[in-house]
Amino acid sequence: MSRIARVLSLAASVVLAFAAFGSTVPNRELRHDLAAVWTTVLATPSAQNPFGTGGAAYACIELHRTVAPFAPDGVESCTVKPGTKIFVMAASFECSTFEGNGTTEEELRACARTGDPDVAPKVTVDGKRVRVAEAETRLLNIVLPDDNIFGLPSGSEGLSVAHGWVALLHPLRPGKHTILIGDSITTTIVVRHR
Fold first, then answer.
1. Which pLDDT value is given to residue 25?
2. Which UniProt keywords apply (predicted)?
3. What's the number of domains the chain is made of?
4. How far apart, in Å, do the first and last CA atoms of the chain sit?
C-alpha cells in the first residue's frame, strides 16, 4: 500500500466534519456533502490539500456555506463566518481506483464499507451529544490535477466511493465551540462576530 493510501486510510478513520444539534438532515444532503469533501480532497493539488503538502493551512474545507474540518490527524481549529454550517465526519473511509481498491462500483463500495467502523463514533458539541447518520457517496468520477496527492499524471481519471458517519451542524452562535469525536479528537470552531 502506498504512503498516500495509508495516510488517506488513516485519515478516513479519524475524519472530521460536523452535525446538527438535534435536527434531522435529509440523507441526500449528507451524501452530497460527503461526496463534496472527498472530491475536494482527491481533486485538489497537494500544495493546497490537507492530505498533501498544504497541511493544516487547508484543513478547513469550504463547501457552499458549509465548512468541513478534515485532515489526516484531525483539525485543531477552524474559524468561520456567522451563518456557516459545519459538516462533521465522525469517521469516513474512501476507496478509489487510484489506490487499487477495486475497479467497479460494487468493489469500491464494499471496500469503503469494510474500512469504516460498523458503529458511529460518539460526537459531542460543547458537551452535548449530536446525532450522527450513516452516509455513502454515489460513484464519484475524479480527474486528478497537476501535483496530485497520488503522484499520478495530471488528467488521470478514476472512480471513488466513500462511506461515512456524519452530521451537519446548523450555524453556531458567535464564539468558541468544542467538537469532540470519540474520546480524543477535538476541534475548536471559532464563529466570528459580525
1. 53
2. Signal
3. 1
4. 47
- Which residue bears the cell 475524479? 142
Q: What is the C-alpha separation between 192 and 176, in angstroms, rounded?
A: 9
Strand partners, 177: 189
Written in H, E and C, the secondary structure of 90-153 is EEEEEEECCCCCCCCHHHHHHHHHHHCCCCCCCEEECCEECCCEEEECCCEEEECCCCCCCCCC
By CB atoms closer than 10 A (0-12, 13-18, 19+), residue 163 is buried
C-alpha cell at 21: 444539534
The candidate with the shortest Cα–Cα distance to 171, out of 154, 152, 191, 141, is 191
Helix (H) or strand (E) holding 79: strand 77-80
The rounded Cα 38 to chain-centroid distance in angstroms is: 6
Angle in degrees, CA 25, 184, 47, rounded to 5 = 75
> Each residue of 61-90: pLDDT tens digit?
999 899 999 999 889 999 999 999 999 999
Q: Could you tell me the residue range of the domain that residue 144 belongs to?
A: 3-191
